[in-house]
Amino acid sequence: MNQQNQQEEELTTQRIEAFSDGVFAIAITLLILEIRLPHTDATHGSVAAALVSLWPSYFAYIFSFVMIGIYWVNHHYIFNIYQKTDHVFNLLNVFFLMCISFLPFPTAVLGEHLLDVKEQKTVIIFYVLGLMLPAASWFLKWLYASSNYRLIDSRLSPRFVDHLTKQYGFSVIFYLLALVISVIQPVVGLAIAVGLTFLYLLPSKQPVYRDPPTL
């Protein structure tokens, strides 16, 4: 591979990162726009009481903000591993970003109806589904890029690549489990999804490379 082709590939990955940063910024901004200004009425006699009554929206906002932030951090981490791109990978990344930009919608639904006993199960299932979609699309993108080292650094240790595959795969499985449990016990399913997401606040494993050949 000559230097010109390498620079073109590096530029392509950089453009994907720049575009992705823009989508992350918009999605994370939309979260706060979904919290409506409180209105005082017979139930909430003061602005203070009305503000307190919005706590489900605050919870949904903070949690979704943290989640999108985690994906943003890991997006930069993983693009140190991706060395080049192709058409299919670009489309998979667009699909992932679509899932990220969708998240403010179920976040708003959760914040609005979490305390509604009749609708609680529906809104939690919808929200957990919204959390699972980015994880699933992230995993698909990784599977495509890492298959036979298609787009990732060929110097990476197979054990390290396998570690990331298992980590991302198990995330999808646990989100799916949380989704199934939400059908039976909505609050428990939501708690599992919240706990799983906060595990990703831990630092990512540093890339491990193959041992250099002995002379």
Explained architecture:
The protein has 215 residues and is mainly α. It has one domain (3-199). It is 72% helix and 0% strand. The protein is built from 8 helices and no strands.
Draw up the topology in text.
Layout: H1 3-33, H2 47-52, H3 55-78, H4 87-102, H5 104-113, H6 120-146, H7 158-184, H8 186-199
SSE string? HHHHHHHH
Major beta sheet summary: none
Query: Based on DSSP secondary structure assignment, what is the total number of beta strands?
Result: 0
Q: Tell me the quaternary state.
A: single chain
* Unreliable stretches: 6-11
Number of separate domains = 1
Q: From the helix content, strand content and strand pairing, which structural class follows? A: mainly alpha
Estimated share of beta-strand residues: under 5%
Shape: elongated
Q: Key features?
A:
215 residues; 8 helices; mainly alpha
What's the gist of this structure?
The chain is mostly helical and 215 residues long.
